[in-house]
Amino acid sequence: MHSQTDICIIGNGVIGKVAALGLAQAGLRVSLLCGTASPAAGAVDAPWDVRVYAVNHVAHKLLSSVKVWDALHADRIAPVDAMDVRGDGTEPAGHLAFDSYGARVGELAWIVEDANLNQALDAALKFASNVHMVHGRAVQLQTDTQAAQVSLDNGDTLSAALLVGADGAHSWVRHQCEIGMDYRPYGQRAIVTNFTCEKPHRGVAYQWFAGEEGIIALLPLPGERVSLVWSAPEVLAERLLADPLEQLAQRLGHYCAGPLGRLTPLLPEAVKSFPLALIRPHAITAPRVALVGDAAHVVHPLAGHGMNLGFADVATLLKVLDEREPQRDCGDARVLGRYARARKEDILLMQLATDGLERLFASDFAPLRIARNLGLNFVDRLPFVKRQLISHALGRPS
Hints:
alpha+beta
């Protein structure tokens, strides 16, 4: 079988699915290569997913525009009304706080489960007439002046004016295009799981820079529940994963007992982990190819904006394609150049911010520890600077 469309997307995660819906709703014919089998939809009463995302305003606007936001299970979405960031060490301990009132928005962000997002996206794709779902594994990519062509392991081929690589941190598309990258492992693992909390979280997302123990975040879930993202050094991560979740909850009590009280693991007990690294590809485009999501950038999760960068990639690609001249097709070199330029600053700023903060708070040098905590307190007393920081985190909503 040979399939000819305007756009071919490789990658069946959230970013690939959102891209497929947005491009199809823009009137383009899309083929979405989604592996060997369709993902199973989650049930409304399924256990709370341990993988969650802090969705900012750019992502919210994009999901609303493709008619997915209102299809999410609203009772499983938690608005973030405030953020409370704590430094490490003894006095003077650093503290930085943001809230939606000071940012002049209704919410700072929304915490959404991965399963909730995927279920709504899968349902929308079933009714997307312009999207052709293809099952199989890509084995070869060829491009010329007219199109990109992907060969599958079953002998089928997919041809399109533009190939979108949304296939994650270890992107096959990026490798096929021979795009080099800078790779820096952090020597940490992100441990994610969920708890109930004794005291109401009141929509506050907490984060502790815990020195040699890494970076701990507790994000609000609906009801008196929180989701943990602990970026822990490898040795500590192995210990945390080996211990019972009740012991992990007791360890967390050192940080959160005051605002949240006693933590109790949600049942059924579930915990996942994944290694952390900084991945900076040397380009996010190639002839007839555009990269989005983790294929284009991987950053430390301390700011919670890795997924939001991917949503912004898709929003920018949609805008650039919509504004292209009539004589240019989707994979035109000038069109792809505009996409790359439009994303350069946002990606670079997030890479520098997350990598810089990780390096800063990973050091155990005493004078530096004092300076970084004083820095948090100093920024907390500067309303204008705080507004600028939160504006960038929100995605500069219009």
